[in-house]
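User: Fold both of these, please.

Assistant: Here is the first one.
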Amino acid sequence: MKIKHIIITSGMAVVLHMPIFTPAFAVSDITPICRAMRCTASSPTNPDNSPRCKTYSDSCYPGPHRIRSCDTCNTGYERTQVTTTLSGCTGSVTYYTCLYEGGGDIGGGDDDCDGTCTDCESTDWTSDGIGREAKTVATCNTDTCECSKMSSRRCIASYYGLAFPQLGSTGTGCTRCPSPGTSVAGDNRTITKCYSTRGSDATGTFEYTQNCYYTSE
């Protein structure tokens, strides 16, 4: 666009063509800096960084974005600082999220639990003293990525008992079945679970047609 300016000099009219320059962008096109501002009821929580927070505080930014920063964390989680960028404003934003103490990815406030647990494997039965064996049963909570472990003990075959010693006892809580008796591991908590498959008398040895169980008397 050009505007004509007429200058009168010594009775002559001189026409000058003066260009007018238009800015390359309008003021409204400038991306704002990411500065926290007051939140409104309609401010969307995006991203929501509070699934592990015990307490949190909200800050809103152009975009719009409402970011929840964890002030304290639930048990089993660690308060961790995160820096990210947001669409709709320039610069970085720092907030706090809560990550599982066992580890996890940090980024954009996403849930750090991937549905798996570390060091969460059950074990087979192994010897745990005379006449007793133990194993560990591990269970993974795929929602929280937390692993719970429980120890289990039992008397081995040919023994009976609760597999836990009485208070003050130095034993394992398992007692050998009377000879030549035996038992089945896992189904041998009392002596009545001990049984014999053979016997002997003055005439010699013999086998029972069915298991002969012991009595508690």
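And the second sequence with its predicted structure:
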Amino acid sequence: MSRAEIYSGAESATAQANTLERSASSFGGMSLQSISGASAGIPGGTIHDSTTALETGLRTWTDLIRSDADAIQTIGLTFDDADQTLTSMLLGM
């Protein structure tokens, strides 16, 4: 039976956080246009024209992803510091 290994490191956490942030980089800057001219007189047209809520939702989602990325980095640094402390204690340094 093989043993599972846990690896923590600041570099790994930063790489994961950067990957997460890149995946959502375009959400916050997305600008949706109104289709009011094309939907005039069509039932439900005003609902389709209300893109503000969608834009706000995408910006909020981007903020959430950035917050998660920051948390990943913080956790990675915390684990890395804990690993260094334990290593020093075990090696008597």
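The first helix runs from residue 10 to 23.
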